[in-house]
Every structure is written in C-alpha cells, then in structure tokens.
C-alpha cells in the first residue's frame, strides 16, 4: 500500500472514532446538564422532548464561606406547559486535579413543586417563577482540616437533573 492510501485510511478511522465519541457523550446522563421529562402527558403519551437546565453560582467560594445560590434556568422546547416535579444539583468535579468535588457541598432546591414553565419558553430563571432566593439550590466550599490551596480560583463543575410532566 502506498503512503497516500494509508493516510486516507487513518483519517477515515480518526473521523469514525470522533463521531463515536460524540455520539456516546451525547447519551451520557449529566453531560450538558440536560434533564429528561419523566411521566406522561394529559393524553397518557410518554413525554418525548427534553427540557434543559443550566445555572451558575455567582461569586467566589471560600472555605466555610457563604453558600452561593444557583438560579437555575429552564428551557421548555415543547408546545405544552412543563410541570417540574423534581430538581437536583451535584458537584461532578473541578478544573484542577488537586481539588476534589468533595471539597464542596450542595444545598438542594427547597421550594415547592410543581414549577410550571410555559410552552416554548427559553431562559426561564427559577426566581422569575416566584422562587425566593433562599429556596434556590446553592453551592458552598467545605472548611476542611487539610490545606485547600489547590482549590483557589478553581471552577466547580455542576450537573443538573430534573423531572417533569406535561399535564
């Protein structure tokens, strides 16, 4: 075989491997912080469209410091109202290997359910649905006994989950 054919075969295999990785990552739970609605709609049909959850904790975290609220943002791509019945936030890791996810804690959403999001709504903050800041999920840094300098300026990776019905 000549070098040109080998290069083309290697390129084709590389592209195939990349497509496989993209397909697998798109199916892993928690990647992209997308939540699947659970349950059935008013007609008894299983929910089919995903809704998305995103969020950011504003402000710096420090050991033993105040928890930073996360005003989750919901997008409902469906043509029916979405009735959220469960929300969850977890720390999945950080941007530095020396700073573990266990250095952080999450206070979960403490408001009432269901939270109703209008059809085709994009970028709906929980606070715009009437959720008080005190009920929002929040992330805090644990004041550990060991040196936590590895966590200075770290980015904390969060995953969001939720379930909803269309009634």
Key terms:
4-stranded antiparallel β-sheet, alpha+beta, 10 strands, 1 helix, 167 residues
Description:
By secondary structure, the protein is α+β, with helices and mostly antiparallel strands. The chain is 15% helix and 28% strand. It is built from one helix and ten strands. The strands form three sheets. Strands 1-2-4-8 form a four-stranded antiparallel beta sheet, with no helix packed on it. A three-stranded antiparallel beta sheet has the order 3-9-6, with no helix packed on it. The termini are far apart.
Give the proportion of residues in helices.
10-25%
Secondary-structure element order, N to C: HEEEEEEEEEE
Strand content bin: 25-35%
For the largest sheet, list the strands in their spatial order: 1-2-4-8
N/C terminus separation: 62 Å
User: What characteristic shape results from the CA principal axes?
Assistant: globular
**What is the helix tally?**
1
Low-pLDDT residue intervals, each spanning 5 or more residues? 9-48
What is the mean predicted local confidence, pLDDT?
78
Q: Total number of β-strand segments?
A: 10
Taking all Cα atoms into account, the compactness measure Rg is 21 Å
Largest beta-sheet details: 4 strands, antiparallel
Which structural class should the secondary elements be placed in?
alpha+beta
